[in-house]
Amino acid sequence: MSTQLKNLAQRIRDLEEALEVELEEKRREFRYRLERSRVVFDTDVLARHRAARERLLSFLAKTRLAVVLTAPFIYALILPLVLLDLFVITYQTVCFPVYGIPKVPRRDYIVIDRQHLAYLNGLQKLNCIYCGYANGLIGWVREVASRTEAYWCPIKHSRRVAAPHLRYPDFIDFGDEKQFQERVRDHRLELGKKAEVER
Description:
mainly alpha, two-stranded antiparallel ribbon
């Protein structure tokens, strides 16, 4: 990987760390903490949240009919999502040890915690659980796929890719057959080492 690409990748990591620092500041500002993976708000904040909760009937009364009619299409996705989850669990369990690739922990990606917000009604909490699962699952699957791609075909594409994964800058340039032949084995070894460090 060129020095320029390494610098850009490092800047992305630095920005992610800066984002985490800002999020930690927001945790202090909104006065909550994590105790054994459970969100705990200060008592007065929790009371304020409960007072702000909109009742379910009021919430539904304000919802457009067209929005309500889309609900079956949204919730129907749970079936393919759960199937995807099961297939990727199986794939990673069977294949990653053979390839020498460390497994990607699901718990790092699928975060379901918004139901602890007292200002959400039951339907809003259900929707937040669904979105936390779906988006976390897709993020986890993307990481599993990125490790797979880095192992089997670490070659950049000929054209721009929208929002490439973080391993992509390390990939071999499109059309550089010499580098591919020379580096593909080393690339696989590096993947195992880098993935171990990331855990």
